[in-house]
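Standup notes
- DV: blocked on the single-chain target, sequence here:
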Amino acid sequence: MALISWIKPNSFVIDVGTDHAYLPIALIDNKITDRILAIDNNIKPLARARSNILDAGYTGFIELKINDGLNGLNFSGDEIIVIAGMGGVLISKILDEAKSRFKPNQTFILQPNWTWYELRKWLADNGFKIEQEQIINEQNKFYSQLCVKYTGEEYAISDTEAFCGINIKINTDYDSFSNSEINKPLNTTSTAVTTYLAYLNRLKQLAERKSQGIELYQLIKQEIEDMISKQISELKE
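- DV (later): unblocked, structure below
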């Protein structure tokens, strides 16, 4: 649901690593789009996807393709490419292998489950602008979702930004994306700020684990603590 909230109606969506095809099915269920290419590099996930699509009654609407990432595909520039539920390093690799075929302002929705620091650094170094991020809290786990445009222009982000994210919005309602609080700035609701603080505290714990003898993460941990203090002060005001 968080993924489809960023997809404009009637878009052509390429779902890389579709697995069970939950995203393509949700796109049709919610009347977002039925122009979908679902990709996986393994026969077994595609078989599960085909079975789920058949059960949903959407055979003929979703094209399934066994493929290694985006290799061999050509792009018009209008596609929304979704790569979710895998490591940030692998997402970087998939994008890097296809980068020469991307068009200016090509849109990507990325959701790394780990190595998000490495992904954000790679995006900045390779001209993929992070336009917006949202934090999702699902079953007491936090996930970052990035909306990215390809510009080809490199830019700099700090280590703390790469670890924590930039241009962040908070989702406070995971079932109804028509809710008025969705994607408002952090300071508009106390619920959003509380979620953001919980997210920062989780990242602080991760940085603390990595900080033993690693100066980079010691600095990140300190800057996260400063961010937490600032948010708490603003919440009290």
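- Follow-up: Residues 215-236 form the longest helix (22 residues).
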